[in-house]
Amino acid sequence: MSLTIQLIKKYGGFLFFGIALVVFMIIRYTGHTKKDGDAVHVYAKTYHTDAGWGYDIYTNDSLFIHQEYMPAAPGHKGFENREDAEKISALVISKMKKSHLPVVTLAELDEQGIRH
Fold first, then answer.
1. Neighbours of 44 (CB within 10 A)
2. 39 band by pLDDT with thresholds 50, 70 and 90
3. CA distance 33 to 61
4. How confident is the model at residue 10 (pLDDT cuts 50, 70, 90)?
5. Do 105 and 98 contact (CB within 8 A), yes or no?
6. What are 53-62's pLDDT values in tens digits?
């Protein structure tokens, strides 16, 4: 069996989930933009869980992203502290305001000095 097929069988669920998440975010995010020039109010709230710290992103007081675990990091690990969760939620908001996908990479966690 080829390596590609083995990888698809092993990680196919993650790949499908990732693609579905991106499509969902695009559809949901474009549904929240207003075409009449009104501004969209975007803000974050951090919270503590058993896994560490997480954040929620709101658009016009509606929950848009619920990030219980550190994005891009393997496993189900939260941020070590509130400040790290705030840094990444601010990065996500910045991306949203620039009409970029609100996706965080491991490299971006590293750039922010966040241990994963």
1. 18
2. confident
3. 13
4. low
5. no
6. 999 999 999 9
Q: Classify each residue of 63-96 as buried b or exposed e, where b means 16 or more C-beta atoms within 10 Å of its C-beta.
A: ebbebebbbebeeeebbeeeebbbbbbebbbeeb
Please work out, in degrees rounded to the nearest 5, the angle formed at the alpha carbon of residue 99 by the alpha carbons of 94 and 102: 60
103 residue type, one letter: V
User: How many other C-beta atoms are found inside a 10 Å radius of the C-beta of residue 34?
Assistant: 9
Cut 0.70: pTM above it? no
The end-to-end CA distance of the chain, in Å, is 33
| Contact call for residues 91 and 104 (beta carbons, < 8 A) | yes
